[in-house]
Design brief:
Blueprint (H helix, E strand, L loop, with lengths): L1 H21 L3 H15 L1 H4 L17 H5 L1 H10 E8 L2 E8 L5 H11 L12 H8 L1
Antiparallel strand pairs: 1-2
Helix pairs in contact: 2-6, 5-7, 6-7
């Protein structure tokens, strides 16, 4: 009986630990993402994500950004060139991909997707890793 109780207790602790470990802290990711944004994105997309008219598309209240999370991951990793339509306006430019870790991509996208009028589901490092492959 004692062995069974000990085994149950250990299993319960393991399950709690795994559940805790798997939870994603969006708030912390957004805070880290602001730093990545400042270093990598701000010069083109500006401090408030407004972009530069006719040159760099806005990230603030961006229908294009929010429409496809996987596309956003892919474009952050590999870049994008050619025409895109953002908030009804055509942009035809190029953005190079960034040499970032899965966590950094997750963080910067969580910051962008939850700032300046955007509200999006979390992008996890696991999603970035799967998209990177």
């Amino acid at each position: 009986m004692k062995k069974g109780l000990i085994a149950f207790a250990l299993a319960s602790v393991a399950i709690c630990f795994l559940s805790f470990k798997q939870k994603f802290d969006l708030k912390s990711s957004i805070a880290r993402g602001k730093e990545v944004y400042t270093l990598q994105c701000l010069s083109c997309h500006q401090e408030q994500g407004e972009g530069l008219e006719d040159v760099f598309p806005p990230l603030a209240k961006s229908d294009y950004l929010m429409a496809d999370k996987t596309r956003s991951i892919r474009q952050t990793l590999h870049g994008v060139s050619g025409e895109i339509k953002v908030n009804g306006k055509i942009y035809n430019g190029e953005m190079s991909g960034f040499d970032l870790t899965d966590e950094e991509v997750s963080d910067v996208l969580n910051y962008i997707r939850n700032s300046w009028g955007n509200k999006g589901a979390a992008v996890t490092p696991q999603e970035v890793a799967a998209t990177r492959k």
